[in-house]
What does this fold into?
Amino acid sequence: MTMPEPAYHERFGWLERKNDDFPYYRGLPVSLTGWQWLVIILSVFIGFAFILFPPQFLRGPVSALIPVLLFPAIPLATLAWFAPAGWTALFRRLQGTDFLWMIFFAILNIVVALIMGSVLIAVLETTKNAGVAGLVDQSSFDRLMFFIRSIPQLFGEEVFSILPFLALLWFFARRGMSRRLSIIISALLVALLFAAAHLPTYGYNIVQAIGGVGVARIVLLLPYIMTKNIWVSTGSHILNDWFSFGLAIVSAERMITQG
It folds into this structure.
């Protein structure tokens, strides 16, 4: 089923690029059925399970690369199985301005994170990200491997977010919901999903996960909504997290030196 091109008033003209639209939800470049979307979403969670519960023999500095590679590979392979001629619609050729948008949205998210972090610290007891905090005690090699592993893992987090986002767009479109409202509700639901996935990281602090990670997910979804290109949102995500990782290492080492 192919749906008509969205009208101008259904687009976020200030954000979305002209003559472009999200894939799949209106039958372009291919149509996906409800049960195919269910299998794709199931594969998203299977990929995530390799991150959440990696086998013991895949927890070394180098072997831990395998679970983070499987994280995005499993859902993408499932999408390619159902849409062999259209699965690459998630990826677009990068334009020169895309690199600037990566930087812009990374900086925007850092600013938003600082504001939300200050608010959360003021109103409740927050939990540190144990994985990032543990970087301080690691060797240079382990840190290097951490940064290398973070590239496919952060790409996997984009797959983990964008495929459910597109599935929700498909679901709402077939129920007659307006495109704008579908995008807003889908983004909010994906933010909740992303926050829930990070609950173990933050000691199951629900408020911190939603107020910190959930809000960050909305900001980092904006470059995909703008460009329809997963490479752009992934680039923003990597820049944002690498800045956070580096800042945590520098701050901790400075405290140790001053102490």
The chain has a mean pLDDT of 90. The chain has one domain: 8-258. Residues 140-173 form the longest helix (34 residues). Residues 8-258 form one domain.
